[in-house]
Amino acid sequence: MSARVKQAAATEAIKDASQLRQKAMLARHFDRLAAAPQTGERCAYTFVPGNLTELLLSFDLLPVLPEINSLQSAMRGKSAEYISIAEKLGHSEDVCTYVKSDIGMLKSGNIGPTGQRLPNPDILLLSYTGCFTFMKWFELLREEYHCPVVMLHVPYQADGHITDSMRSYVVEQLQTQVIPELERVSGRAYDEDRLRECLSLSARAEDDLVWVLQSAKQVPSPIDAYFGAVYYVGPIFSSFRGTEDAVAYYRELRVETEERLRLGKGPVTPDGDMGNERFRVVVEGPPNWTSFRQFWKMFSDLGAVSVASTYTKVGGVYDMGFRHDPSRPLETLADYCLGCYTNLNLPTRIDLLTRYLDEYQADGFLINSIKSCNSFSAGQLHILREVESRSGKPGGFVESDLVDPRYFSAANIKNRLESYFQMLDQRRAGGAS
Amino acid sequence: MKYTVGIDLGSTTTKAVVLDERGGVMGRGITNSRSNYDTACQIALGEALTNARFSLIESELARGGVGPDAALRQVSALERRFRAEQYRSQLRVLAVELRRFAGRLLTLSREIAASVDTILAKMDEEVDGLYAEGARRKSDFFRDLAGSRYLQLAEEQARAEGVAFDTLASLFDKAILDVENSSDAAGGFEDHAQAAVLGWDGAAAALPAAVERIVALELQQIGSVGTGYGRQRLPFPEGQIRSEILCHGLGAHALFPGTRTVLDIGGQDTKAIQVDGDGIVTSFQMNDRCAAGCGRYLGYIADEMSLGLHELGPLACASTAPVRINSTCTVFAGAELRERLSLGEKREDILAGLHRAIILRAMSLLARSGGVKSEFTFTGGVAKNPAAVGALRKLVAENYGEVRLNISDDSIFTGALGAALFALRDALRGTEIAR
Amino acid sequence: MSGAAALAGLVAGAERVYRDYSLQTVVEWKARTGGLAIGYMPIYVPRELLHAQGVLPVGLMGGRDDLEIIKGDAYYQSYICHIPRSTIELGLNGSLDCLDGVLFPAICDVIRNLSGMWSMLFPGKYVRYLDVPQNFDRRVGGAFYMRELREIARDLETRGALALDAENLRGAIRAFNENRRLVRGLYELRYRQPWKVPTHELYVLLRASIVMPVEESTAMLTQYSALAQADTSRQPLDQARVAVTGSFCEQPPLGLIRTLERAGCYIVDDDFVQIHRYILHDIPLDGDPLENLVTAYLEDGVASPTRYIGDGVKGEALLQRAKESGAEGVLFCAPSFCDPALLDQPMIVRAVERAGMMWTAFKYSENGGQFQVIREQAGTFADSIKLWSPA
User: Fold this and answer.
1) C64 vs chain A: nearest CA distance in angstroms?
2) Helix (H, G, I), strand (E, B) or coil at C331
């Protein structure tokens, strides 16, 4: 076997390792969840923005994330049916489709992405962070499950920074409400040492994740920081942050990315390695999940690579240097929740996007405006104009939805994307094309 | 003679613009869109080339001492005769298809066939009259023109002979598809130009020779670009497709070089486009999820009011007290209209309100794309509507101050013009990709 | 002047204020007093705090059906409710120039994001998001809220308002207690004798009240109450008694309210202009007034979709009000795309159904002009109440 082929084979094997590991992690997690009614393990339903994974793990509670269930349902083609069930039950066509998909899934036996039944929640940890709909979601689920709910109100960074008052408010709620409830539900006492251990594991994983995300500053970028990166942030935002598994996963991912960088390779796409990187874009807004690959392909077919995205910061923002800090466990949890993307005010979001355009050497940015998500979408047109004006780089605008396939019109989106990229192309050529 | 062509496949019509090597417009062609995209493109191109040849004949005559006014009259008349020939040609194909379908009927086949023959004979008699000087036709598309006359005659036949109108109508529906999807049903310049001159006693002495020369003139295509919205597949190689946003921007710039903002209100979508000094798009916004405020909406209103589309604008202009209309939702258009009429509001006042509402939507889209800068070019079918233009002028002045507004009679060809210019640029740079 | 004429004149005056985009009442007040005027978005802000500092609180509830949106639509996609675009329109067209700032209470993500946009669009003005607590423990949520209010008070002081003072605050609480009592009184009068307090009249009074000094509102409501009670020209009609819910932020057009009434409904309970009935009882005057204000929010606030229900039962508060007001049916009347109203609706509907009450639902937008469908729906609903309700 020639050296080249050997190297290629080795690279192939390396490329798959992190994906395989992630798959195994998820499988184990869902197995545990499926077995929970028998094993007696308790689970807490909670949200990605404002997630307190380390705290839950320190109580041996299994986190379940209905948002992730909804997006998984969409990728498996089940969300249309689930949404229809919810709408027949009286849920409005105007509201968040994650919620409706979850309600529909619940009514259809609560079968999760691995085909196993998800356990009922022992507690609903209502981390009220960055999204009003979360409050309603768990009020609705409470009526279905009749289980305890604990509210954690994470105040909004309205003025663009975290104040002591906000932090104390969150910490006090953790102390007086959340932790006592978790103790009651889990039957365990709060173990701060255990929490600190998890937090230091989190920080290690976060360092590697950030390295990977920032590798996109290189030209060409070895990763796709939107479509590709939603897989990368899965473990950090869900049940794995704070575990050895996550540390291993992110270490592996980093090694793979380093290798791609070394070889000058572009990101992996649904059709294999991306060839020529023609356009570098920053993307704002959640992806569409029902036509995820098709949407991705519209980018990759045109040689467009996402070099930074805001959706991958929805559980927490690391760009400003945040890492979980075991020396101040409750404060660090508070800061993490307070700092997630959807909890940032509009001016801060504009600054972040503008910075990304510069730091990641992007040609332009795209906004995927989601019909049913007001938290992201309300104000995006203002963001579009402001970021264009500040960066001097053009913004594109497409509209779709999270998990309702009725609001993804491929022709419509493709037309706008092609027009946008052709526009970028023309501008680059100085109009002489 | 070399040319490039740009083809714009729209939802209702397909347009083609043909340019010479210096970028001058040689000809324009338009046809109704149809299910076979290849055919639609070929026909549109054919029409544009025909238009080009007529222009060439006109120049030739004018140069040859006939004088520009006379040349124009000659060529206009020639073209009418030519169109009549095309119509006849399509009528012949239609006849074949109608008879074929009639022959397949299980019952009353002979009676139906006889009615069809009567109808066709009448239609054939009327051809010259349709294309006589000063004649006004409902449409220039065979499908619409022949279709409406056929149905009228079918009704007469149904009454007179007792044959089923529905059967006659359905025969047409089937037969017309074959006419539509055939690229040579109408026949091109070479087929009919000489026939049009022959036996025409009004022809100038120099005309037959000019026609013969232009028929023989080789027109060589050196580049083509296609554009058009939302088609899964335009019948062009990938490298020769350009987004209609870019084509529209460049086309508007070509029509009015000072253009900085373009508004296009089409049948189903609205586009707001900002361009730079070279006609390159710098930003754009589209409203394509919802047809509210687009041409189709006006079509529904026209139907509801039993008016022709072209009558809406002038009627709206007659309003003295416009009614405030809040929603331009097509779904509710009929209901809203009926409610207001029943409340005693005047048609012209309602229409004035509707036109303003449509333009308000356009203003939002313009604001989203970056505002309105001088010069502001307004294209699309709605640009021919005086009430829409009036409302636009007013709102632009109120919100952006003095801005020069451009409207071209040829604005429907803006996209095709831009596409043709892209084709020319590609050809000149020799980057045309052959597949 | 006859009672009926005086009544009509009073209502007409209130309607003029309701329709006045130029906020003349605010402009005049500022000219008189030289004080700050601070606007606030729905649903609730502690107006007493502002009043105590010599600031005029000005309630903003969007544009109406007669406001043409020209600039506002450039900021919002079509699947977002209407109130933020009309609010931006009013801001950009100068209607709100008389305001020195705006408070944005935490009610939903649209208004939340609007606060950031506002700070960018109007950099010279005071813009403050009021993150009302969803934790109702006095030592936790209450303490946080207290800190928020003190900060707002300090901010206003640096902008020229009076320093926050206990006596002034007590006085303010007294004034707003009285104002709220009058509103409660009118609501009671309306459900006892709905023909005496047509909702389309009450509505414009409530809307006018939020853009004028509280004393003027109190005088106006007092006068209306007396005139309405004394008036004998209005006769009872055989209308169905309905409770309207969902209209606490973006407001329905006045035409919609009239349509409901003409369709055969007496609106005996509603959540229009909810700030008037957000705090359910008088706020105590003894003790620390700021603490009382905070406690009132925590413990005496109306059950709104924007307040975490905790262990409460969804719909219970509405059913209670329906019972008190003798409502026979519930009209869910929400703006299109309104997350709080529409997400809560299925839970409240279930509660209403469990209680055996009839209900119907529709959506509106503040600039809607077409009420035909609603008229038919409400009419049918009213008829079915009269036919099928236990007499």
Assistant:
1) 21
2) strand
Chain A residues near residue B230 by CB distance under 8 angstroms = 411-412, 414-415
Q: Which of B225, B247, B280 to mutate to test the interface with A (most CBs of A within 10 A)?
A: B280
Residue of C113, C342, C347 with shortest CB distance to A139 = C347
Q: Which residues contact C293 (CB under 8 A, 6 or more apart)?
A: C46, C48, C49, C149, C169, C173, C283
C-alpha dihedral (C27, C28, C32, C37), degrees to nearest 10? -40
pLDDT tens string B89-135: 999 999 999 999 998 988 888 889 999 999 999 999 999 899 988 88
Give every CB contact of residue B368 below 8 A, 6+ residues apart in sequence.
A381, A384, A385, A397, B272, B285, C74
User: How many Cβ atoms from other residues are within 10 Å of residue C26's Cβ?
Assistant: 20
A127 in contact with C, Cβ within 8 Å: no
Chain B residue nearest residue C78, CA to CA? B290
| CATH, range C22-167 | 3.40.50.11890
Please choose, from the candidates B429, B435, B427, B384, the residue with its C-alpha nearest in 3D space to the C-alpha of residue B6.
B427
Partners for A (CB, 8 Å, 3+ pairs)? B, C
Question: Which residue of chain B has the CA closest to C92?
Answer: B399
The verdict on C339 touching A (C-beta cutoff 8 Å) is: yes
Q: How confident is the model at residue B401 (pLDDT cuts 50, 70, 90)?
A: very high
Q: Residue B425 is encoded by which pair of tokens?
A: 């640029």
Name which of C73, C76, C81, C140 to mutate to probe chain A: the one with the most chain A Cβ atoms within 10 A of its Cβ.
C140
Contacts of C65 in chain B (CB under 8 A): 324, 326
Q: Which amino acid is at C193?
A: Q
Query: Which of A415, A424, A425 to mutate: most B Cβ within 10 Å?
Result: A415
Q: What are phi and psi of A432, to 5 degrees?
A: -90, 0
Domain spans in chain C, listed from the N-terminal domain onward: 22-167
Task: For CA atoms B242, B246, B247, B253, give the dihedral sign.
Answer: negative
CA angle A429, A433, B2 (to 5 degrees): 170
In whole numbers, what is the pLDDT of chain C averaged over residues? 96
Q: Does A372 touch chain C (CB under 8 A)?
A: yes
Radius of gyration of chain B (CA): 24
User: How close C289 comes to chain B (CA, Å)?
Assistant: 46
Q: Which domains does chain B have, with CATH numbers?
A: 2-216 (no CATH), 257-407 (3.30.420.40)
From its phi and psi, is residue C94 left (phi > 0), alpha (psi between -120 and 50) or beta? left
What's the average pLDDT block by block, 10 residues per block, for chain A (433 residues)?
50 65 93 95 96 97 96 95 97 97 97 92 97 98 96 98 98 98 97 97 97 97 97 94 96 96 91 90 98 96 97 94 97 97 98 98 98 96 97 96 95 92 88 45
Q: What Rg do the C-alpha atoms of chain A give, in angstroms?
A: 21
